[in-house]
Amino acid sequence: MKYERQQHFIAGKRHATTDSFVSVDPSCGQPLAEICKADEAAVRAAVQAGKAAFPSWSATPPMERSRILLRAVALLRQRNDDLARIETHDTGKPFSETSTVDIVTGTDVLEYYANLIASGGLHGETTQLRPDAWVYTTKAPLGVCAGIGAWNYPIQIALWKSAPCLAAGNCMVYKPSEFTPMHALPLAEIYLEAGLPPGVFNVVQGGGDVGAMLTSQPSIAKVSFTGQVSTGQKVASAAAAGMKYVTMELGGKSPCLILPDANVDDAVNGAMMANFFSTGQVCTNGTRVFVPESMLPAFEKRLMQKMSDVRAGDVMDPSTNFGPLVSRVHRDKVLKYIKHGIETDKAKLLCGGGEQPSYPGVDPAGFWVQPTVFTNCTDNMLITREEIFGPVMCILPYSTKRTDFVEDLVRRANDTPMGLAAGIFTKNIDLAHRIIARLEAGITWVNTWGESPAEMPVGGWKMSGLGVENGRRGIENWVQNKSTLVEMGGSVATVFAKL
Hints:
Aldehyde Dehydrogenase, Chain A, domain 2; alpha/beta; Aldehyde Dehydrogenase, Chain A, domain 1
């Protein structure tokens, strides 16, 4: 094993349980560490630790909470590369990515919310109702919240959830994905070192059954979940039965619209970022790339020329920018979709495919797939309808001969039950804004793809989620509002007076 046994973290201390499972390095298929699996007693203990810590933490002034969180920010930045190595071993993502994106952007969110609460971000409003009466609102934390992470951006998602949760005065019990659990204990210990009181941030390890135990606890006030739509539906349903608050960041099948006036190089670069970054394991990926028929030959030619810039290799090599998929199970799922695209959908395969790739310097026991491009796709193909969550681009040509081609393009882009993200590449900014306004998606980009800074609220429409994360609006999902009307007239009005 490359790492020590990973335990839970409850009330400021490591906590062991008997059952365990093994985390695997996707780049080589070798075991990383033994991970303790939580039982019901451990889950209850974690929730109880949060309950015990909540009265003091929620009463801590926002400025003091901010100072503690900012000390955690400093520690995260100091240990960026060490944490990035853990992420690379656990996820298979290249170190060139984890060291510049995952910890950096997650820490940005923690810093954002620490500064927000220090500068009045939790203030309410005051309204003069009439000369002798006024209304004021206050924001109160929810209590003990459950955070359930995903495997594609482990530490970033943990920070996206815990940052506003803790900043608002809540406590959290966090369960990472069982596929990528290695970040959770280091993060918990950094929070403790920064001065976070024991019990404010707790960790339990395990799979979906542990998540179900956690979300069903009566004392959990909110569940924040990131993952696929089908699992999110179950989590939200269970939470609703207990009248718990929820934030759901789910999947997508996002359209990437290339308009006829777009620069071909820019369009290709955008489409590649929207499909091959993080080996395509990004919920906001623009996997339906709409290209005008007039541009299609030039677009495909330039795309094939640039595919050599997708460099698989030793994931610790700074020049590597493409890693394996996260697990054998997921690799097999993606390969099944690729096979269906070739054999059943009959899409034209431009590059990649279902064969086991052979990359120089890469362990063939890892969970590698080739970056794959299909073209001449249609809207009814399985590969263009379902979320593949891998490096599979589908090019859908469209005609510009009709004067109302934009109407048809918008209709096709919106023809999905999901609505997480969408983007446009064009020189016509006025047209871009008009189209963006009509796209049924919660996250949209113009002439770029994928960036989600701390200041930008992100969340899905339709089946892609509930609530938002990040930005000023993000903290509203971690508080409950109280309205108070104060009467200063000196007497209490009543309708029950003598006639």
